[in-house]
Design goal:
Blueprint lengths: L18 H14 L16 H5 L2 H65 L1
């Protein structure tokens, strides 16, 4: 039996390290890049909100949230339109059914009248 082996567990299909491993490498490189003079000082990590909003993943998440809001809004509008159309169809159906029945009765009356007048002449 042949076994199909993918990339090693420590890499993705394209041969890159998995995201968690890449992140830990970035942190390690960041720590190694600290200047020797700053080793004795206390540093505080900061979170840049503007940079976080500009990340591709954040943009995609924001886009998906906006799409979800738009879909919910459109669903409400569609439901209102459906309710109006269903009411119109029901009302229109009743009116048309009555109109057809009246017209058929009139046709029968006229047919009978034509037969009577034809027989009388």
């Amino acid at each position: 039996a042949h076994s199909v082996e993918g990339p090693p567990a420590s890499t993705t299909k394209l041969g890159y390290p998995p995201p968690k491993e890449m992140a830990s490498r970035r942190v390690l490189l960041g720590l190694l890049a600290l200047p020797a003079a700053a080793v004795g000082t206390v540093s505080s990590l900061t979170f840049d909100v503007a940079a976080a909003k500009n990340r591709p993943v954040s943009k995609v998440i924001t886009l998906l949230k906006d799409m979800m809001k738009q879909l919910e809004k459109e669903a409400e509008e569609d439901e209102e339109i459906y309710d109006k159309m269903a009411c119109w169809c029901e009302t229109n159906d009743k009116e048309k059914t009555k109109s057809i029945a009246d017209a058929e009765a009139r046709i029968e009356d006229l047919t009978t009248k034509i037969e009577e007048l034809t027989a009388a002449s």
